[in-house]
Amino acid sequence: MTYQKKKLTKEEIAREKEQAKKIGEDLKKDKQRKPKYKAVTCFKWMMGLLWKDNKSIAFSAVAVIPLAIILYGFNLYLTPTIIGMFEQQKSFGFIALIIALLLVSQLVFRIIKDYIDSKRVLMNSLFGNLISVKLFAKKQDMEDYLLLDPEICKKERRAWNSSSGGGAELPGKIGNMAVNIICFFLFGSIIATLNPFIVVLLVGCAVANFFARKYKTRRDWRGSAKRDLNWRKMNYMTYDLARDLKPGKDIRLFAMQDYVEERTKDLIAENGANLTELQNTQTFVQIVASTINLLRDGLAYGYLLYNAVHGNMTAAEFTLYFGAISQLSNFFIGIVGEIDGLLASALQISDFREFLEIKGAFKRTGGVEPKRGVPVSVEFRNVSYKYPEGEETVLENISFKIESGEKIALVGVNGAGKTTLVRLMCGLLLPDEGEVLIDGKNVLEYNLFDLYDFFSVVPQEYNLLPSTIAENVTVCDESERDTVRMNEAIKAAGLWEKVGSLEKGADTPLENRWNPDGVRLSGGETQKLLLARSLYRSSQIMILDEPTSALDPIAEDEMYRQYTKTAANCTSVFISHRLASTRFCDRIYLLDGKRLAECGTHEELMASGGTYRMMFDVQSEYYKEVESEKG
User: Fold this and answer.
1) What is the pLDDT of residues 178-199, one digit of tens each?
2) Cα(312)–Cα(100) distance, integer angstroms
3) 375-454+543-557+572-631: what CATH class?
4) Residues whose CB is less than 8 angstroms from the CB of residue 225 and which lie 6 or more positions away in sequence, other chains included
5) Which fold has domain 460-538?
6) Which helix H or strand E contains 435, and what residues bound it?
7) At 86, is the secondary structure helix, strand, or coil?
8) Which burial class, exposed, middle or buried, applies to 234 when counting CB atoms under 10 A from its CB (0-12, 13-18, 19+)?
9) pTM, 2 dp
10) pLDDT tens-digit series, residues 408-417
11) Which residues contact 315 (CB under 8 A, 6 or more apart)?
């Protein structure tokens, strides 16, 4: 039974067209881009990279050229040579010896070429791996604010295409191009001695074939936006949605299986129609190409037969010209066909180089010498910020100062800009206006690594390493680990009892998807682990972004007590929605409407009767209602 795609509404059709149009415009702009670096420059750069990493593999990119030409020559002259010796009535022993030598020589060159070809395949894989490693290192070294820039994100995606796309094949493509060009002139000169017009005929037919292929490429490209949109949706439904356990749970609980199945069938049917359209174009072009080739072969081989029948050439010459004619068109098509691939590969390598050359605003060496081991101040002066693709300003003209060793709390509703403010403080974002100062100096005056050393952060969004608890806390090798300090941090974070209950203790691996013996911590235990990591780092500024959201009240109270002790020797910033938890802070800042609306101690803000008082009373009322219900 064939599945029929359901009929879309006018609104759905319009939405699909608009999405496809946007993707098409992006693809058109991308197709019209010019590479910053030319193909030859990219080849030299790439070969230099490979030569530095593996000289034998880099050498294979060039070594295959003469070997391929020699083998083509062997194949062309082997049969005519044998026939010529028979025509000259050479002895059987002599003919057998010559044939054996030719075949052995051909075998030797073939083995060498096959070995070098295997090296070229390895070269493609190696270069793809080299690109991936360099991209990973570059990504880790980049300043976070750069990765929010849409243009830089595009450059990053293009750079990754160099490792998974045709960029790694650039040396091989250049080698193939060189072989095709040299052999075209060699074989063409042989045919030209018979009749130059045959060369013209062959080239003309090859050009016609090229335009037929070009037609197919244009047709395929015009439909690429529609196919890309379908592929994204189908990939989400059949891969992302299928492998992620969270949506799967919702699908089962809310009985959405039929909806998901029907939508997936729609997308598969649409994909089938897209593939059929591609195949129809392919079939048409193949028919045209076959017709052109039939005309070409009929005229060329007919001319050869005419001359052979009328005694104008020997059987050996006939075989030689026949082989040259059959190969010449392939060489020309190879030249033309490699051009687009060569330019595309060069563009990818150029994109990769451009991404590696992106520089941020921070220094990597030098800079202002930071204070070590003592709390430092943090100051915002007239800071405003809007995310690159955001519609509204998140923070506007923010000015305040946190004194050295002071404990402050940042509160406000969701989306008020609390996390953004912290990212600006750490140098993860740069203000559009104003400046952020650490210890009285603009963050840009420090080098990036000294700036990061100032901070210990317990983030709201986190990533645990697929390694042991000890490595997650210390983030270093065992040889560099301070075990006493690590244990103190684990105890202070309230995770000591959990670690002690595990057979391997702090050496227990996390994430059982990576390690079969690994454990998965609960939300509260993970927050304690993140706090332990921050305490072990023991930096001059500690930032806790909603650190108790997954903790029960008893564990939360214990964390506050430990936090008060550990934060005694550092400047600290505490972000929380639970206003009752801010009482231990020296001052509280309320973010409201892109600005700092209120500032003071808990008692002062309660007495002022502003937004903080209203938010606190709402939360308190909820707890009172719960208590009265229990009573």
Assistant:
1) 888 888 888 888 888 888 888 8
2) 30
3) alpha beta
4) 20, 21, 23, 24, 27
5) Rossmann fold (3.40.50)
6) strand 433-438
7) helix
8) middle
9) 0.68
10) 999 887 777 8
11) 83, 87, 308
